[in-house]
Amino acid sequence: MKILMTGNEAIARGAYEAGVTVASAYPGTPSTEIMENFSQYEGVHSEWAVNEKVACEVAAGASIRGARTFAAMKHVGLNVAADGFMSYAYHVTNGGFVLITADEPNMHSSQNEQDNRYFALFGKTALIEPSDSQECLDFMKEAFEISEKYETPVLYRVTTRTCHSKSIVSIGERIVPPIKNYVKDPRKNLMVPANSRARHPEIEDIRLAGLREYSNNCALNRIEYNNKALDNAPSIGIITSGIAYQYAKEVMGDNASYLKIGFVNPLPDKMIREFASKVDKLYIIEENDPFIETQIKAMGIECIGKEVFPICGEYSPELLREVLLGVKPSCTYETKLQAPARPPVLCAGCPHRGLFFELGKYKNKAYLSGDIGCYTLGAMNPLNALDSTICMGGAITGAHGFEKANEIANDKSMKCFALIGDSTFFHSGITGLINSTYNNSAITTIILDNSITGMTGHQENPGTGKTVNGQPAPVVDIISLCHACGIKKENLLVVDPYDIKATREALKKGYEATEPFVIVTKRECALLKPIIKKRANMKSIVDPEKCRSCKACLRCGCPALMFEGKTRIDNDACNGCGVCVQICPFDAIEKVGE
Ligand SMILES: Cc1ncc(C[n+]2csc(CCOP(=O)(O)OP(=O)(O)O)c2C)c(N)n1
């Protein structure tokens, strides 16, 4: 049967057909839909892990037991999972183990553009990179064969365009190989120094040698020779992988020959030498870093890569056409109209808005240490209420470090606030909170609990009471957790961020606190389906007679508010959260439909 599928849907299907029985993932663009799709299949255990390290180790445990398993994450997730991944890479893999990393050239939703192919080189594992949805499915199945045959983890790298583009896929049957026996054997599974020392040479001499041989002979790597010369110019050869292969083919068609690499680590050295010897001019086309190119140059082969193709950002057919053929992109449609800029913004009715509106008042006398989630948008105009954001879980730890440096500098001019969402708190905020109470840090942590993992599109988490399949799950209570982390009863406040006065008072207490202090702002995400339904008739409306055009309400940055001589509220966008009602100094806005 043939179906139109995104790469992520096809990866999930491939895992299902390959007989995966246990899978764990933490959401993150562009990987999220892999688990969302996989969890729809019957007869599998799928789960949202609390973070990527957990997902990787859950998969490692299932693999040791003999099951086929995968962990999925976005590229920066592999930094979190790296300890487990690098160590499990020394084990003798039992059940097939695949770690899917979804990288993000051009950082559409990420803080960096790291190229995770290096993790395979670093961890001495196999690396696979598909170029379209059919390959996403087929390569997934092959990944499990490789993992079990060569007793290695397989790093499976995709990028945004492969994950999210749709193409036709032939789907097949699910075949579940029997779960392998688990035989106790410390030399395979207990990496203490004596065992690791014995294992390392095996990885170099047996695993990597076997994989290199495989790489030179497998169907994942293929040469496509084309004889048609380009204007009688010397013959062009292109070595490429991933989505860049599609772009190169679109631009050069049969005016070039290709070595398409789907099995990327170890590289097919013999194929590369043979291909290079047959063409006059050799290009290496790969997004992000010169991962393939550097290794080919180290083989002493002359080629052109990052001298002409950029390291930064995403490739496109237009970009390759310009570099390879000197053809500038032509605009097919011209207009003098300028679309207004639409910077990212907290949604209308977002519960984070009230907090940031009040917190912004402290920006000159506080360090506002942010984290990663919808609330990172608190940094944007007009709220401007964040100083920094490092990585997931970095808010509390960063605020603690800032505070300790403040103490040494005897600088009392800035109170330290840490801001973190509920999912991020479970992900890696808890350890930071324990660290800050243990080390007696007078920081105030604000946990923005909107009862969902908002930014990545509403995934359940340990605080929501549901599993990835929507099944009931125990609720991990954030408040008890904070107390268990060392926050005293009197140093914890829970507040509704729709209530501006209560939020203001809580922040004042947090600002004045001299001990580790926590404020939990509790209000569900406005886009949760039951909340949309519940608040469907709740609106805020402006009385134009009373509106004095002072624009005070606009300072909360709500996209439902417009100014047309006077404030007007978009009835469709507004959910009657009432933040603007409380801000208006002239009582010109009122709530209706409650
Ligand atoms: C290491 C890592 N994993 C995953 C992500 C993707 N990601 C960005 S924000 C976010 C979740 C934020 O949820 P929450 O903390 O509940 O805040 P909300 O967006 O709901 O306000 C995730 C999973 C990431 N940026 N980094």
Give your account of this protein's structure:
- This protein is of the alpha/beta class.
- It folds into four domains: 2-217, 3-Layer(aba) Sandwich (Rossmann fold), CATH 3.40.50; 221-325, Rossmann fold; 352-529, Rossmann fold (3-Layer(aba) Sandwich), CATH 3.40.50; 535-592, Alpha-Beta Plaits (2-Layer Sandwich), CATH 3.30.70.
- Helix content is 36%, strand content 18%.
- The chain contains 20 helices and 23 strands.
- It has a seven-stranded mixed sheet with strand order 3-2-4-5-7-6-12, with helices on both faces. It has a six-stranded parallel sheet with strand order 15-14-16-17-19-18, sandwiched between helices. Strands 9-11-10-13 form a four-stranded mixed sheet, with helices on both faces.
- Helix 1 (7-17) crosses helix 2 and helix 10 packs across helix 13.
- The relative contact order is 0.08.
- The mean pLDDT is 96.
- It binds thiamine diphosphate.
What is the CA-atom radius of gyration, in angstroms? 27 Å
Structural class: alpha/beta
Given as residue ranges, the uncertain stretches (5+ residues, pLDDT < 50) are: none
CATH architecture of the largest domain: 3-Layer(aba) Sandwich
Strand content: 15-25%
- Please count the helical segments: 20
Global mean pLDDT:
96
Q: How helical, in percent, are the residues?
A: 25-40%
**Total strand segments:** 23
CATH class of the largest domain: Alpha Beta
Strand order across the biggest sheet?
Answer: 3-2-4-5-7-6-12
Number of domains: 4
- Shape label: globular
Distance between the termini: 51 Å
CATH topology of the largest domain: Rossmann fold
Major beta sheet summary: 7 strands, mixed
CATH superfamily of the largest domain: Thiamin diphosphate (ThDP)-binding fold, Pyr/PP domains
Bound molecules: thiamine diphosphate
